[in-house]
Amino acid sequence: MGWAGKILRVDLAKGSCTPEPLNAKWAAEYLGQRGLASKYLATEIDPKVDPLSPANKLIFATGPLTGTAASTGGRYSVITKGPLTGAIACSNSGGYWGPELKNAGWDMIIFEGKAKKPVYLFLEDDRAELVPAGDLWGQTVWATEAAIRAKHQDPQIRVSAIGKAGEMGVMFACIVNDQHRAAGRSGVGAVMGSKNLKAVAVRGSQGVRVRDAKAFFEATTKGKATLAANPVTGQGLTTYGTNILMNVINEVGALPTRNHRDVQFEGARKISAEAMHEKRPTDGKANLVHNQACFGCTIACGRMSQLDKGHFTVVNRPQYWGASGGLEYENAWSLGAAAGIDDLEALTFANFLCNEHGIDPISFGATLGAAMELYDMGVITTKETGGIELKFGSAQALATLVELTGKAEGFGKELGLGSKRLCAKYGHPELSMSVKGQEFPAYDSRGIQGMGLTYATSNRGACHLRSYTVASEVLGTPVKTDPLATEGKAALVKAFQDATAAVDSSGLCVFTTFGWTLDDIAPQIDAALPGGWTTQRLLDVGERVWNLERQFNLAAGLTAKDDTLPKRLLTEPAKTGPAKGKVNELGKMLPEYYELRGWSKDGVPNKDTLKRLGL
Questions:
Q1: Tell me: the pLDDT tens digits for 521-559?
Q2: CATH 1.10.599.10 in the chain, residues?
Q3: Quick one: which of 103, 253, 306, 527 has the fewest CB in 10 Å?
């Protein structure tokens, strides 16, 4: 009922696949996916473990609503200790892979150890086997998926795989399913590669049961109507996708540009969602072909794009002429504004290659922006880049280096370190726009103050999806707050963090929260699961998950000193826009946040907090 009730434990060193019952007590306390898998990880590994050693574990996990009729019930997460940050990592993906795992009858898969030679897991309902993957090692994600489907003669097999970047230990390598959906952040693909695990292929036919089918149908039908009536989930995201934010955030004065030197980008309009709809003068076609939905999603924010065949990136490269995953806001920003590039076709090409080779476009683009600043300063020269002129605004440099990074070749190896290690190597650690080693997404916290606290306290390093205060500070959901004010932001961030942790544990997409509150989600979970689920219980789950992750990070060696922002954001005022003259005032918000969390001044959960949450 909701939960499949079993997990698969795969010992890669021994080559064994062993089913075991789901821990029902933990499921009742942590719900599923992010929360439940984090509990397993924190219990089973030493937080101080080297993320790329066999002692680390890699968990693929679904939530109780994954694979059901709930809108956006297509999510799964990959949980591990992340190599990019050294912190707990939970990377969320959509598409169809998660529901396929659930339909095969499994809540999660726990990978342990390291295979002697490359393998992939083939899982068909109750049958699990490790298959030699020597012929796939070195292949792209796209080629791997096609080869596995051909080998098993089943076009409906769902595949999650890594490219060469994951095999070679690129610090922000991701795991890609359905060609362009990804567990994208924190380097989970590098952990997969360190285990000689190329892919996880799944085929399921068992279906997903819920506790009360009638109540579930009523709750999910009502929920879908609410999403359809909301202007963001029913119109904006459906029509324009997430990149509808490009012009909005630029006007707010919070679009990080040229490695956060600026907060507005003069080329934003050229790489916006609106530009994706416009017909090109070269061939009369638009960049955007159509939108696309993940499993069971009524929002359909995904984009499918097609390149101009005459563009310099794809001339004589017909393999990139077909439609594939188009730009989302974060990708358009990181591949564009972060490096000062306004060539929409080049950004789309780079996004294709990020998906094909399995690298996180946010970290890649942000690292490229940092490298361009180092080049602009004369710290990096063409001697280090192999002749590539690493100038801000260079679409040619972007197109060349995304491929080199995906293949871990040339200067791409350097970029594959991530911005923290790259900038430290060249003597300017202050130029890494990151928290805990993970690069910022597309919001400058001088213009949106709450996002500064969000980034600083995020358990997986800088992340917007751990607490999307942009919803309130810019979009006015659920209430409008002043983006330039610090008052009340500590409470806002905590509320978003706890609610998001619960949503991430459910199997639903966090985008539903543009239209839903937990009051809309609780009835769906309650109808799916036994035990009685209320809004307050979900908030308790979210807070418990957040504090569990915090405990893991503290045990791993992180401290309150890691809850900070780069000096640039704290001391260099925004030059233009509504935030002109402003820095992020983290110092005003962080102490209040710790107090609201029930943590000490050093950011450590106190005994009363741990007791209340059962930790």
A1: 999 999 999 999 999 999 999 999 999 999 999 999 999
A2: 446-613
A3: 306
Per-residue pLDDT band at 506 (split at 50, 70, 90): very high
What CATH number labels 6-203?
3.60.9.10
Q: Which residues pair with 93 in a beta bridge?
A: 76
Nearest residue to 504 via CA among 30, 83, 162, 88: 30
Give the separation between CA 106 and CA 126, rounded to whole angstroms. Answer: 9
Q: Does domain 446-613 have CATH number 1.10.599.10?
A: yes
Which tokens sit at 422?
């790259």
200, β-bridge pairs:
121, 160
Instruction: Label residue 395 by pLDDT band (50, 70, 90).
Output: very high
Q: Could you give the residue range(s) of every CATH 3.60.9.10 domain in the chain?
A: 6-203
Amino acid at 67: G
- Residue 413, judged by CB atoms within 10 A of its CB (0-12, 13-18, 19+), counts as middle
Q: At what angle do helices 344-357 and 395-406 cross, to 10 degrees?
A: 0
pLDDT tens for 99-114 read 999 999 999 999 999 9
pLDDT 10s digits, 319-330: 999 999 999 999
* Span 167-195, pLDDT tens digits: 999 999 999 999 999 999 999 999 999 99
CB 121 within 8 A of CB 199: yes
Residue found under tokens 């984009």: 303
CATH 1.10.569.10 domain position(s) in the chain: 257-432
Q: How confident is the model at residue 1 (pLDDT cuts 50, 70, 90)?
A: confident
Phi, psi values for residue 18, rounded to 5°: -125, 120
C-alpha to C-alpha distance for 304 and 352, rounded to whole angstroms: 10
* Helix pair angle (586-597, 489-506), 10° resolution: 60
| Rounded mean pLDDT, 27-32 | 98
Distance CA 344, CA 322 (A): 16
User: Which has the closest alpha carbon to 228: 338, 192, 534, 220?
Assistant: 220
What is the DSSP secondary structure assignment for residue 2, as one 8-state letter? -
pLDDT-based confidence at 24, cuts 50/70/90? very high
Contact of 205 with 108, CB cutoff 8 Å: no
Q: Which residue has the tokens 């942590």?
A: 30
Across residues 35-58, what is the average pLDDT? 98
Order of all β-strands in the sheet with 324-325:
288-292, 302-305, 324-325
pLDDT, the chain, mean: 97
Output the CATH code of domain 257-432: 1.10.569.10
H runs (alpha helix) in 236-343:
237-240, 245-252, 273-277, 329-335
Among 293, 262, 265, 375, which Cα is nearest to 94's?
Answer: 293
